[in-house]
Amino acid sequence: MPKSIEEVRSYMKKYREDNKERIIETRIKYKSSPNRKKSYIIYNWKSRGIICDDYEALYNQYINVTNCDNCSIAFGSFGDGTGTHLCCDHDHKTGLFRNFLCNKCNLLRG
């Protein structure tokens, strides 16, 4: 016999209160998982208008690329002040992915 919405809400509220620490641990573990990082990066590409036939293949290329396709400099970290962090270059009119560049080359390409 189905429960009323109020009973379900009450049960869920009690469950969240009783398992607060476990829920927090699970969320922290998921946020640092490779699956979450992958889905977050692909979501960002899509929200920025990058169009690609196979996001899985693009992501695999993304995690394995180490040097800029234009100047061949090794990628640095975002925020390290070198401007060499990895950027996903794309045509802003069509949205099509072009290649992976350092931030400096991406800005020069416009």
Care to describe what's here?
The chain is built from 5 helices and 2 strands; from the N terminus they run ααααββα. Helix content is 52%, strand content 10%. A hairpin with a 6-residue loop joins strand 1 (86-90) and strand 2 (97-102). With 110 residues, the chain is mainly α. The chain has a domain at 51-109. The longest helix is centred in the first third of the chain and has 14 residues, at 5-18. The chain has a two-stranded antiparallel sheet with strand order 1-2. 10% of the residues are buried. The protein has helices spanning 5-18, 20-31, 34-47, 55-64, 103-109, and strands at residues 86-90, 97-102.
Q: Strands of the biggest beta sheet: in what spatial order?
A: 1-2
**Beginning-to-end CA distance, first to last residue:** 62 Å
Specify the biggest β-sheet: 2 strands, antiparallel
On the 0 to 100 scale, the average pLDDT is 88
Which percent range describes the beta-strand content?
A: 5-15%
**Helical amount among residues, as a percent range?**
40-55%
Q: How many helices does DSSP assign?
A: 5
State the total count of DSSP E strands: 2
Which ranges are low-confidence, i.e. pLDDT below 50, for 5 or more consecutive residues? none
Overall geometric form: elongated
Whole-angstrom Rg: 21 Å
What series of H and E elements makes up the topology?
HHHHEEH
Q: What class, by secondary structure content?
A: mainly alpha
